[in-house]
Design brief:
347 residues; alpha/beta; 17 strands; 6-stranded mixed β-sheet; 7-stranded mixed β-sheet; 33% helix; single chain
């Protein structure tokens, strides 16, 4: 066990592959993007020091997001294979630099060949994949919740909320806007997560944003560190480059920002994670020990049934390929159901 080490939320520009004409062109662009990331990690470690043991990359750092592509189209062009060349390349970077590396990418799964999922994957300092988390909440992309029964059959509930026990602490992942949903972080916290790795591509602002507030809140609630890496803009698309930029940070378990990056590509968001100290605080009785005081049974009983039903893309054993309009229609139906149930009101 390493009692303390440094973690880096690497803020790097996402170079979009959306304009690539073929999957082959996209694969070359992705490989080039990963090579560039590897150079940045090597240079960052040389500056930060040998005790840099954890690096978190931004959301979809090597591809950007699917914009107007169909599900099959983006699966062919913008998605990693679970055992593909992209993870081999990332594994070599992790091994060569002696770091645990958290990536985020869209990913094909042979158990669900009709779909793709957005996945956060942790590679250890030997280059091995040790954790795979699939984003559960996404407005226009498939998630495990959409094929819930089959997904549980394949991966089980611990595959939905995985926590990796490592020499640098118990690691877990949250993707993008999921930092706004305390239930996801709580599920990981109650499975022992001590460091939450948050890959994001979010609006940057000199003012507090909802996501920026949520990073502090999730850290406090779950008595965990949060290492949050944002993009330094997305190039190669029509959105202005600086829209999703800045605000990468490391937050401790008491909600204090230990380090943060401004705008642009940056390694400024690095800080010491004192895992031994965190564990002492988690064992200390008192009002601030939130994990020990949580009346989980009462809260579970008080949660109303959700209007967003699982298995939306599962018809028996058949997986349906959705269109963008299908996701929009489902959200509209869910809002109507919440209104009918009295959760939302117009009185």
């Amino acid at each position: 066990m390493i009692d303390a080490y440094r973690a880096l939320a690497l803020q790097t520009t996402c170079r979009a592959i959306n304009a690539c004409a073929t999957p082959e062109d996209a694969a070359l662009a992705v490989a080039d993007n990963i090579t560039r990331i590897g150079r940045q990690i090597r240079a960052s470690k040389a500056f930060i020091g040998a005790d840099l043991k954890l690096v978190v990359l931004p959301e979809y750092f090597a591809t950007s997001y699917p914009l107007g592509d169909t599900i099959p189209g983006w699966a062919a062009k913008g998605c990693f294979a679970m055992d593909g060349a992209e993870y081999e390349q990332l594994g070599r970077i992790a091994q060569d630099n002696g770091v645990y590396l958290c990536s985020n990418a869209y990913e094909r799964d042979p158990n669900f060949p009709e779909l793709y999922f957005q996945s956060s994957v942790i590679l250890d300092d030997s280059g091995n994949q040790i954790l795979r988390y699939r984003r559960l909440i996404s407005l226009y992309a498939p998630s495990p919740h959409d094929v819930w029964d089959k997904y549980l059959d394949v991966y089980g509930i611990d595959g939905v909320f995985p926590v990796a026990r490592t020499p640098i602490g118990r690691l877990a992942c949250i993707a993008s806007e999921e930092i706004l949903y305390p239930e996801i972080a709580r599920a990981l916290g109650l499975r022992g997560a001590e460091v939450i790795l948050h890959s994001t591509s979010e609006v940057g602002s000199p003012e507090l944003t909802p996501k920026d507030i949520a990073k502090r809140a999730r850290a406090i609630e779950n008595m965990a560190y949060v290492v949050s890496a944002n993009t330094a803009g997305i190039s190669g698309v029509d959105i202005p480059l600086g829209s999703a930029d800045g605000m990468s940070k490391v937050v401790d378990d008491q909600g204090r920002v230990l380090a943060a990056a401004g705008a642009g590509e940056s390694m400024a968001a690095y800080a010491d994670l004192d895992i031994a100290g965190l564990r002492r605080r988690r064992l200390r009785p008192g009002m601030g020990n939130f994990l020990s005081r949580l009346p989980q049974g009462a809260i579970t009983a008080g949660l109303a049934s959700t209007a967003l039903k699982p298995n939306a893309l599962l018809d028996g054993n058949t997986v349906k390929i959705p269109q963008r309009a299908d996701f929009a229609a489902r959200q509209k139906a869910t809002l109507d159901a919440l209104l009918s149930a009295g959760v939302l009101g117009n009185d």
